[in-house]
Each structure stands twice: as C-alpha cells, then as structure tokens.
C-alpha cells in the first residue's frame, strides 16, 4: 500500500491547546482510592498521594483533570469530602454501587493538582442538587476569605483559594442511568440559571454545558440544540463524550473509530453554529470533549449487577492491547485536527478505571499500551496544528463504510524550528509506504521516529510484563531534499519528529 501527503506550515488549523491533553479522575472503582491516593502505600507522601503514580502522571503529560465525576457527581454532596477526615460521613454511592469513605475530597484534589502542576476542572451536581449548592461550592473553592464558606476552607487547611476556572454544569444529564437525569428543556433551564449565578460570582469562569452522553443517544443533536438555545449566552463550551470498542471481532471497523469521532465532532460544531445563527449570536461555542477513550462497555453492561457495597472495587479495569493503543492514537489525531473548535478534552479516566496507568494496592504502578500515544502526543504536539490531507487507499468497513487506511495530523513549532507528524496505518494486513512532501517545513532531518506496533495486535502490558508493548524506533524512514519516505507497519501508530 502507498500513501502520500504534504505537510506545510501554511495549512494552519489553530494553536495546539494544552487543555487537549486533559484527563479525568472520578470517585469510581480504584481511580482515587489505591489509584492516586493510598496513604498506606510505601510510596505515599505525607498527604497520602502515591508518588509512583504522580511520576507516571507527570510523564503522561496531563494538563487538566476533571473531577469528581462522571456519574458519581450526580449524587455527590461536596461538603462530605471536606473537614477533618475522621468526621467525614461514609455513604452509599449509587452510581457505581459502592461505599464512599470520603477520605479524599475537594481540598485533597486541589492539593494533588497543585503538586503536579495540573489545572483542576470541577463538575457540579445538577442531578440531586442544583443552583444553591453550585454557588456554595464555588464560594468554598474560589472566594479568598471572610465569608462562612471560604473561611471554612481556610480552617480546613487551604488558606489560598483553589482558583478553579473551568466548571462542568452536571454530567451526562440526558442519560437514563444518570441520577436525576432530565429532559433537554429541564436541564437547559437549570444549566442556564446555574451558569448565570456562577458568573455573578465570577464573570471569568469558563462553563461547560452537558451535550449528549454520546452520538448514539436517541436525542443526540436535538439535545444539543435545545440546551444551547437556553444556555448560549451563559456558557463557553458544550461537552462531548464518546467511547470506542471492538465489536464482534470486527477489527477493521474498530481501527476506523477515528472517522466516527470526526463525524461526531463535526455534527456538534454544525449544531452549535446553527443555534448561533438562529440566535444571531456573535461568539462561537467551543467543544470540550471531556470523556473519550477505548472502553469495552458492552462487557461492562453485560455483567451481573452488584448486590454488595464494596469500598474501591475493581470496576472497568480494561486491559489495553496494541490495537486499542493504535485506535487511541488515532482519536488523538482527530482531536488535534479539530483544534479550531475542540479546545479542551479529558481522557476518561486517569488511573485504574479505563486508564493509561494501572496500580496494585500496596504494589507497583505501570503503563498500559494507551499510555504511550498519549504521552508522545502531549510531549511532541506544539505550536500550531497543521492540516494534512493524506492521499490514501481506502478500506470498506462494516460500521463506518469506506475509510482511508492512513490518517494523520501535524504540528509546527516555528519558534523552536520543530515539527511533529502523527500518523496511523489502519490496514490490518499490509504495511504502508508513506511519502510526505515536507519542503515547506525546511526541516533538516528526522530527529526521531517512534512506532507502536506488534505482530500480535492483542498483546498487552500486565503486572507481570509491564513493558511488553512499547513504542520502538522505526528505522525504515529517510528524508532527502525535503521528501520523506517511511514504512508504517499494519495496525500501527507513529510519531515523527522533525527539526
Ligand atoms: O468514565 C466512566 C463513566 O462513563 C462516567 O462516569 C460517565 O460520565 C460515563 O458514562
């Protein structure tokens, strides 16, 4: 197979937004407890945070973290997670059928993000709660002091306000599984009024209205239109959530998931812009793709519902293989390509729960296969996103029709004199020889070319073999006279660095 493309700094999409490399920590399963927080662990610091996990989070290059849910937030009382730990209530947690000890809460989360240099992003509960609790939470979190709630934060050990700018107005409020789920009309009005009140407190907040829980929802499109009509003046973002998985052994369709993500993003952009035209509004709504990943959701939905109320159970601890990581890399390509409108994104989730980082309680932490495309994209995407239009053979897929075998995006950092090309070969059986015209970049050489590939597309990293799958230097690449030739193995994801 053969593909070609041109990478030229003239084909600008938008700046690379650092918030594209966000993630998500939910009080779900072992994401918090025995994930980022485990006071009894040998590597725990004085605050009980696992330093081995923190190191991997740093290496991953995560820029923002959304918290505390997810479905969890729709039944959560934020006050439960504040104040002296031995006085915090233990409660049943309905979204994931577990017991919440509240040993970790808002102030611990803020301290953890501060230590790691991560921007925190909070969700308010619009399921069982509403406007009053949202503005109380905001006062506790962001007001400097001198009021009841801000002084409570100070006396709880956080003298400085947490200064959280980005807030999600609820979570997946269209989902019948959501505690207190709503119609678009009900949610739109509540979100608009909550946003208005939050803005009275601080006009500089960045607010995210809930979009549909996914493009497969029966109300997808109509939900976005109605919610945005009601909230347009009061919010900055609409959220997108989508998870991808291999269905019935159909690897070719699974590998083409990025095409589905492209279509989803473009539909939300079109809907938001249609509302803009209808309202005669000036601003454009941005997209916060605040839950995305590979998730074997069908397996989760097929399980027996739990009758127990365990603390930090093992929930959706999917083990990712090579093909998962290739799809994952292609989802990052799609997000970057849409940087003109997708200006924030959160990989769901960060540790243990459908996560790039896995841990054992009391034991080690390791990188899943998906860790690598995330870390390499976050580290190498810089400057401006460039549109590349690969000329590629197409393959017919059962789920998404004809999809190009090669997908790619590039970034160009003019100041540093560097560029990066992210490219995926979705063919299941054949390598692709890629010819790229890079003359516009004036690059002198390829500083590195790393490819994630394995002859066994279902190979994974495990506790026993944590580095079974890692990206390797691809030596089948050369650059002459501004023209690059690289061989991309089947089912592979590659990052090329040029300087
Ligand atoms: O990330 C797991 C769950 O997926 C989240 O709690 C929810 O928002 C989504 O359905």
TrEMBL record:
Q: Which UniProt keywords apply?
A: Carbohydrate metabolism, Glycosidase, Hydrolase
Q: Which GO terms describe its biological process?
A: L-arabinose metabolic process; polysaccharide catabolic process
Q: Where is the Alpha-L-arabinofuranosidase C-terminal domain?
A: 290-492
Under Pfam families, the record lists: Alpha-L-AF_C (PF06964), ASD1_dom (PF22848)
Top EC category: hydrolase
UniProt keyword Amino-acid biosynthesis present: no
Write the Enzyme Commission number(s) for this entry: 3.2.1.55
Q: Which reaction does it catalyse?
A: Hydrolysis of terminal non-reducing alpha-L-arabinofuranoside residues in alpha-L-arabinosides
> Which GO terms of the molecular function aspect are on file?
alpha-L-arabinofuranosidase activity
Q: Which SMART domains match?
A: Alpha-L-AF_C
Q: Record keywords: Hydrolase included?
A: yes
* Superkingdom as given in the UniProt entry: Bacteria
InterPro entries, per this entry?
Alpha-L-AF_C, ASD1_cat, GH, Glyco_hydro_b
How is the subunit organization of this protein annotated in UniProt? Homohexamer; trimer of dimers.
- What does the sequence similarity comment in the record state about its family? Belongs to the glycosyl hydrolase 51 family.
The molecule here is called non-reducing end alpha-L-arabinofuranosidase
- Organism, per UniProt? Streptomonospora litoralis
Q: Which gene encodes it?
A: abfA
